[in-house]
């Protein structure tokens, strides 16, 4: 009996006759031979159909089969050094499952809007397949890192009654007879979890009602948010650089074919190992002035051009630390010697991909946190539970949030975050 396998298992069956359920990604043929580009979700592989070695019916099917038709393809696995995959299939039989007619995404060039309208089909392409496999590897490596370092996964709610950073960029909804918002961060709940479980992390969707059209922004995106009891500012930075190093090297190790498909310069990724360089906000402002950015002054937030200019000085991600208190949310711990800055850091990816992590030590003093809530015009009643975390055994604690899609974009080398999530939600796109 012929065994049924996936393309990714081909290396285990060299010289054996197998059957693969596959789709036709592309094909070409001459008079006596047909080359079928097969895909099955696990990978891409070439099937070679030689007229003299198969029935006339099978060869005619190989020549006439259309793009994205589905088949059972039977053949013998051969090693092939010319193939990026390393193997090909010498076809002995084809069984058509479904003939695809007028598949809209052809091998020619298509515009971005057309491809986004057909995102449900565009995902089948070799490039998009590679990006999704890299995304999956980052997720796998994330669980591996935190599980191996004593973290417990906790799932914060998506519907919340308050916001960690104000409600101006939140999606509002009704929760029966009261107001609710789609979460923009699970952080506050993760702080509560850290007081119960020590070291925790979450991984889930977050939402920003931000009317931005840049290549770095999505309306719905996924965040990895660790929170750690008894961890101070320096401890927090160490976890961040070790975690980012781990996921990058995991992709280098396990996604070499996908990185090659995307044309990624792997040498740049191989260099991403802790520790990472650091500059203070003060130093960054001085540096930007020296680079000719006279428009930015102390107290201003950095835009994409500023972050890119800073990152270009380094071949690793760089921490920008100690931002002005006025720029950051209410919960960040002030610098012990400077009331005008807080113990926070943004991690800026190299090659112009911008901020991938924001993190800080959190305020653990009850009175100071209550004062900060008042300063920001936030209701102490709405944050009563959050304040109580500082009443019952408060400890220094820190955490951060990593945006998955920006990280996927950087590691895979794709220009726009819309390609880093299966079905992107953008300012003017809710379809498909």
TrEMBL record:
It catalyses: tRNA(Asn) + L-asparagine + ATP = L-asparaginyl-tRNA(Asn) + AMP + diphosphate + H(+). PROSITE patterns: AA_TRNA_LIGASE_II. It is found in: Cytoplasm. SUPFAM superfamilies: Class II aaRS and biotin synthetases, Nucleic acid-binding proteins. Residues 132-432 form the Aminoacyl-transfer RNA synthetases class-II family profile domain. Keywords: Aminoacyl-tRNA synthetase, ATP-binding, Cytoplasm, Ligase, Nucleotide-binding, Protein biosynthesis. The keyword Calcium does not apply. Belongs to the class-II aminoacyl-tRNA synthetase family. This is Asparagine--tRNA ligase. It comes from Bacillus songklensis.
């Amino acid at each position: 009996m012929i065994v049924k396998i996936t393309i990714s298992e081909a290396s285990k069956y060299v010289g054996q006759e197998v059957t693969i359920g596959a789709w036709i990604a592309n094909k070409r043929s001459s008079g006596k031979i047909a080359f079928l580009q097969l895909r099955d979700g696990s990978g891409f592989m070439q099937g070679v159909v030689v007229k003299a070695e198969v029935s006339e019916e099978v060869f005619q099917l190989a020549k006439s089969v259309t793009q994205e038709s589905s088949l059972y393809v039977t053949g013998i696995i051969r090693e092939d050094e010319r193939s990026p995959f390393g193997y090909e299939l010498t076809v002995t039989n084809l069984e058509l499952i479904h003939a695809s007619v007028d598949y809209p995404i052809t091998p020619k060039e298509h515009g971005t809007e057309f491809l986004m309208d057909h995102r449900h089909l565009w995902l089948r392409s070799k490039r998009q397949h590679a990006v999704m496999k890299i995304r999956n590897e980052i997720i796998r490596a994330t669980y591996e890192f935190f599980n191996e370092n004593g973290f417990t996964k906790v799932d914060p709610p998506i519907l919340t009654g308050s916001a960690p950073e104000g409600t101006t960029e939140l999606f509002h909804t009704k929760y029966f007879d009261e107001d609710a918002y789609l979460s923009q961060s699970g952080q506050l709940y993760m702080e509560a979890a850290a007081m119960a479980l020590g070291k925790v992390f979450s991984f889930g969707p977050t939402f920003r009602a931000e009317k931005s059209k840049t290549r770095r922004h999505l309306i719905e995106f996924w965040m990895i948010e660790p929170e750690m009891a008894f961890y101070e500012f320096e401890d927090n930075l160490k976890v961040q650089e070790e975690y980012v190093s781990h996921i990058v090297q995991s992709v280098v190790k396990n996604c070499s074919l996908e990185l090659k498909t995307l044309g990624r310069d792997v040498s740049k990724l191989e260099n991403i190992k802790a520790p990472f360089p650091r500059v203070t906000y003060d130093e960054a402002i001085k540096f930007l002035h020296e680079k000719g950015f006279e428009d930015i002054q102390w107290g201003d937030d950095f835009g994409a051009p500023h972050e890119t200019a800073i990152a270009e000085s380094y071949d690793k991600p760089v921490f920008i630390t100690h931002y002005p208190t006025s720029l950051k949310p209410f919960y960040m711990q002030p610098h012990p010697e400077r009331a005008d800055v807080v113990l926070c850091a943004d991690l800026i990816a190299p090659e112009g991909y911008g901020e991938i992590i924001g993190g800080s030590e959190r305020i653990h003093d009850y009175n100071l946190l209550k004062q900060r809530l008042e300063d920001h015009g936030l209701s102490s009643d709405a944050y009563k539970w959050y304040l109580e975390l500082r009443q019952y055994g408060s400890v220094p604690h820190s955490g951060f949030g990593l945006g998955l899609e920006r990280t996927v974009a950087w590691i895979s080398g794709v220009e726009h975050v819309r390609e880093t999530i299966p079905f992107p939600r953008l300012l003017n796109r809710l379809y498909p």
